[in-house]
Amino acid sequence: MNAQAVAGLFAGAIAIETAARLWLATRQIAAVRAHRDRVPEPFSNEITLADQQKAADYTVARTRLGRVGFVVEASIALALTFGGGIALLDAFWSRLALGQPWHGTLVVLTTLLAILLIRLPLAAWRTFRIEARFGFNRVSPALFLADFVKRMLLGLLLTAPLLLIVLALLEGAGPWWWVTAWAVWVGATLGLGWAWPRIIAPLFNRFTPLADSPLKSRVEALLARCGFASSGLFVMDGSRRSAHGNAYFTGVGRNKRIVLFDTLLQRLDAAEVEAVLAHELGHFRLQHVRKRLILSIMGGFFGFAGLAWLAEQPELYPALGVPAAPHSALLVFMLIAPLFAFLWTPVASWWSRRHELAADDFAVAHVDARALAGALIKLHRDNASTLTPDPLHSAFYDSHPPAPVRVSRLIRVGSPFAESRNQCSTSR
After folding, report:
1. Average pLDDT, the chain
2. Where are the beta strands (DSSP E) in 10-161?
3. Which of 360, 368, 382, 390 is catalytic?
4. Which of 218, 290, 203, 295 is nearest to 258 (CA)?
5. Same domain, 256 and 301
6. Distance, CA of 148 to CA of 124 (rounded, Å)
7. Is there a domain that residue 201 lies in?
8. Cα separation of 250 and 248, whole Å?
9. Domain end residue (candidates: 237, 264, 282)
10. Same domain, 58 and 172
């Protein structure tokens, strides 16, 4: 394939992906607006028309900003390649006359920094205009900038050594360099998962042991009958940044934590908190977390294989206007990878939705189904999540089934869980 064909294929792929994203977003806006003035069943007794309208307006505002983001991302890819951005940064660092992999690492890091800075105004608009307009933002400008600097420095600390290793391997470790690079990446990924709860997350939030004795006892009883061991129950000061509520499990191996947002505890009663945690626990007990990790590792394997192939295509560099160097191949791969990820998105979303329904089924075997339904209704109401997404947009993007689908299934279950089903399987 000649350079002109490569250039056309790259530009065409970006254009098609951007157009598809814009089309799906336009469908989402139209669907949400069409149902703005009617609360769907089974939410009519729990969610007011004002709540429904707020969720619709919030979704439309976020989706509109998302459309701007799609155009910005496409523009970044074109500016870095055809616009000479990578070549300019390469020429800038060439004045230091550093050898590889140091020169390539500097080029990649400054390119990533430039991308972060370009995206920063969109993040600020989302935080201080959209989130603030709908009553969710609690971040001050000083905290917003402090978080940005922390993330940037943390990213530098974690990314720079990995880049040095990958580029050194790409430069001189032979045709199978990418297998070693993939193994290093897997080790870094697992290490990050282990370190996140105790080392990294506390850099951004405060985590305090759950002090609510009745709730703590209830959750510990749930964990005990399910045979699940964690290194603690913690409350995170999510209200410091947002009014949104959530709960999650984090960590790998024995270094696992259960984290509850303080905003979640303010909105849900004890039975509903227990139900939400039973759902999250279902993901672990049904091996969803492990399966997703394995899939990610497999994806990384094929990704590094793709990078190795890409680096050996001599027509790529002049076609895209980038220097013929290992770091250019890595940067071009970073720009191309989202195009393939976009094609995989609906499959990944479908798989995730199946996991969510399975976790719901697990939860109602151990807690009252009505408590989980009530928690979902409150979370959708308080987080202003739309109840009426466009079906195609939802099928393509949504990792969770639409709320009416989940709540209807739970309401059909109806009664409290049976004592005979009170014991979880201990198989892993």
Report:
1. 88
2. none
3. 360
4. 218
5. no
6. 10
7. no
8. 6
9. 282
10. yes
Final residue belonging to a domain, choices 219, 254, 282: 282
For residue 47, give both structure tokens. Answer: 């969610």
Q: Residue 67 and residue 70: Cα distance in Å, rounded?
A: 5
16 Cβ contact list (under 8 Å, min separation 6): none
Sheet with 233-236, strands from edge to edge, namely 207-209, 233-236, 257-261, 247-250
Q: How confident is residue 419, by pLDDT bands cut at 50, 70 and 90?
A: very low
* Of residues 85, 81, 104, the one with CA closest to residue 93: 104
Catalytic option among 280, 356, 368, 390: 280
Domain limits at 37? 3-196+284-421
Asked if residue 271 and residue 123 are part of one domain, the reply reads no
CA atoms of 220 and 392, how far apart (whole Å) = 40
**427 occurs within a structural domain:** no
What's the token pair of residue 382? 């308080």
Q: Global pTM?
A: 0.88
Rounded CA-CA distance 247/265 in Å is 10
Name the nearest CA neighbour of 262 among 311, 212, 296: 212
Residue 280 annotated in active site? yes
